[in-house]
Specification:
By secondary structure, the chain is an alpha/beta fold. It has 10 helices and 10 strands. The strands form 2 sheets. Strands 4-1-5-10-9-6-7-8 form an 8-stranded parallel β-sheet, sandwiched between helices. A two-stranded antiparallel sheet has the order 2-3. The structure holds N-[3-({4-[(3-aminopropyl)amino]butyl}amino)propyl]acetamide and zinc ion. Residues 29-337 form the Histone deacetylase domain.
């Protein structure tokens, strides 16, 4: 399996985030991607190459063009306002306030285009976001070209990014862009299988009314976990997408046995949908040692997860999302990919 990786992610560093009661250094660090890259190399998974450059036309089909444009302009606007340190929003629109008019200054715009204070901006953020998008599309091209599987080692991640907002460390929804790229290259049906600990709210919302892209999430119950406001079991899709969205929320403390029961339900739904290709939103924040998460999967479980995904018998694109236990992240990701490939 080939891996696509860009060193340009590293400029997205020194970020902070708002956690309950405190602004802290972001858990989403450059070291994450560097350790995953090293483990993939050590595991002998296959060649590691840099991405080709792709234009943003697919991203602008799924995201609002004004939002993508904003991402590229944040740092300049923040600097022009005389700020130093990472750009972070402090106010957000919500029902009862005008959600349709982008304000004219950077503080209003940051809130207008964000769901939380968990996707901050530094000087290198836009270049890293664009490189992550290019990694996803380049790896998708390998699978579209006939490879059984490929690994998009994306950083920053994408699955919380919605049509018109950043959040949860995410800016452009890399997995959604990759899924759409398969459709545009002629795949009739695509499944996004999201195994990150957190619900992939952005991906779900982008495809919610579409019957050509199935979205399946196995995640911590939003009643007790971020992103709180999407990811319930009764969200089944709408319109042409009725029945093409599946949420399998699980409680805090979930172990691999419980996770696997949910996965069996997911695999049955995917087989019934019969996609041409699967995009896996790959988070390993389900690990018991994850500093911001509450599942109990162990390192030995990830190769089994990979084997279960291989058993779908479909062309597969892995797109890196979350996972914050940096000391274990490389082994967990490489183990999953080896479990798939072996
Ligand atoms: C891509 C991805 O995995 N994004 C995750 C973003 C999660 N951000 C909010 C985490 C809130 C965790 N709450 C911890 C409670 C402290 N004990
Ligand atoms: Zn996550």
């Amino acid at each position: 399996m080939q891996t696509v990786y860009s060193p340009r992610h590293a400029g997205h560093s020194g970020n902070n985030e708002l956690q309950p009661g405190a602004i802290v250094p972001a858990f989403e660090l450059p070291r994450r991607a560097e350790l995953i890259r090293a483990s993939v190399e050590a595991a002998g998974l296959g060649p590691i190459r840099e991405p080709d450059t792709h234009d943003l036309s697919i991203a602008m089909r799924l995201h609002a063009p004004d939002y993508v444009e904003f991402l590229s302009r944040v740092w300049g606007l923040w600097q022009a306002a005389g700020r130093d340190g990472p750009a972070m929003p402090f106010i957000w629109p919500r029902p009862g306030l005008r959600c349709d008019v982008p304000p004219a200054d950077i503080d209003g715009l940051l809130g207008f285009y964000s769901m939380d204070a968990g996707a901050t901006f530094v000087a290198g953020t836009w270049d890293a976001v664009k490189s992550s998008h290019d990694v996803a599309l380049s790896a998708a091209a390998l699978v579209a070209g006939g490879e059984r599987a490929a690994f998009a080692l994306c950083r920053p991640p994408g699955h919380h990014a919605g049509a018109r907002f950043a959040g949860g460390y995410c800016y452009i929804n890399n997995a959604a862009v990759a899924a759409e790229s398969f459709r545009l290259r002629g795949a009739g049906k695509v499944t996004v299988l999201d195994v990150d600990y957190h619900h992939g709210n952005g991906t779900q919302d982008m495809f919610y009314e579409r019957g050509d892209v199935q979205v399946v999430n196995i995640h911590a119950d939003p009643m007790v976990e971020f992103p709180y406001f999407l990811g319930h079991a009764d969200e089944r899709g709408a319109g042409a997408g009725e029945g093409a969205n599946l949420n399998l929320p699980l409680p805090h403390g979930t172990d691999f046995g419980q996770w696997s029961e949910a996965y069996a339900v997911a695999a049955t739904a995917i087989a019934r949908f019969a996609p041409d290709v699967v995009v896996v939103s790959l988070g390993v924040d389900t690990f018991h040692g994850d500093p911001i998460s509450q599942f109990r999967l162990d390192t030995i479980d990830y190769p089994l997860m990979g084997a279960g995904i291989a058993a779908l018998g479909l062309p597969t694109l892995f797109v890196m999302e979350g996972g914050y236990a940096v000391e274990a992240i490389g082994e967990n990701v490489a183990g999953l990919l080896r479990g798939f490939a072996d």
